Amino acid sequence: MQVTTHTCDCEELARRAREEEARLYRELDKIIEKHKEVRGPLIQTLHAAQELFGYLPEKAQVRIAKGLGIPLSEVHGVLSFYSFFNTVPRGKHTIRVCMGTACYVRGGKQVLEKFQQELGIGLNDTTEDGLFSLEINRCVGACGLAPVVTIGPDIYRRVKVDKVPQIIARYKNGNSSAQSSSRRSSRQALTDENSPASAGSDTSEHKSGGSQQ
Ligand code: FES
């Protein structure tokens, strides 16, 4: 009988992870140093640190507070005030379902529940494969298009519950139009409903969105 042996490269992976972490914190020290002298350095430093790490781990928060000579509570205060700062790792694609009044009454809650069901995660969670995070928005200023969902730079308007699996599938497929479109610099609506050719159907789609309640 042939016995298959597996050599574990855990130590090597751990060593690389430590090296990478050390590199990131050296970069963070440079960022702190660079922002020390500017006015109101905290928010700019947090932005740059989030760019570096992808989120703001507690260790980085402590480092920033020490580096800037401010209380850690001040860092925590800013992080809890601004929703664009993340203190936990986020997925590759952040799905935000608008829960402003217009979107809520036109079916936003049902759309959110469908995303939760399809992704198998709760609000503010990330899928195990690291592909999706799910959040809510409070009005993105497109109430006439309610219910609205944004995924990165893409805007989905008048989203219907039964379209949710299709939307998710676009981001799972690396060759999909959504993937290439998401690399565009400006926000871009991708739904068929948004094409000029279907503009005449907007009213009925609007009503249809309302029926999701
Ligand atoms: S309430 Fe959703 S865009 Fe305004």
Shape annotation? flat
CATH-level-4 superfamily name of the largest domain:
Glutaredoxin
The strand line-up of the biggest sheet is 2-1-3-4-5
SS element count, helices: 8
Termini separation comes to 62 Å
CATH architecture of the largest domain: 3-Layer(aba) Sandwich
Spans where pLDDT lies below 50 across 5 or more residues: 175-213
Which properties best describe this structure?
Glutaredoxin, single chain, binds FE2/S2 (inorganic) cluster, 213 residues, 48% helix
Structure commentary:
The protein is of the alpha/beta class. The chain has 2 domains: 10-81; 93-210, Glutaredoxin (3-Layer(aba) Sandwich), CATH 3.40.30.10. The chain contains 8 helices and 5 strands; from the N terminus they run ααααβαβββααβα. It has helices spanning 10-35, 41-53, 58-68, 72-81, 101-119, 164-172, 177-181, 202-210; strands spanning 93-98, 132-137, 149-151, 154-156, 188-189. A 5-stranded mixed beta sheet has the order 2-1-3-4-5, covered by helices on one side. Strand 3 and strand 4 form a beta hairpin. Helix 1 runs antiparallel to helix 2 (41-53) and helix 3 crosses helix 4 (72-81). The longest helix has 26 residues, at 10-35. The protein is flat. Residues 175-213 have low confidence and may be disordered. FE2/S2 (inorganic) cluster is lined by residues 98, 100-103, 139-140, 142-143, 146, 148.
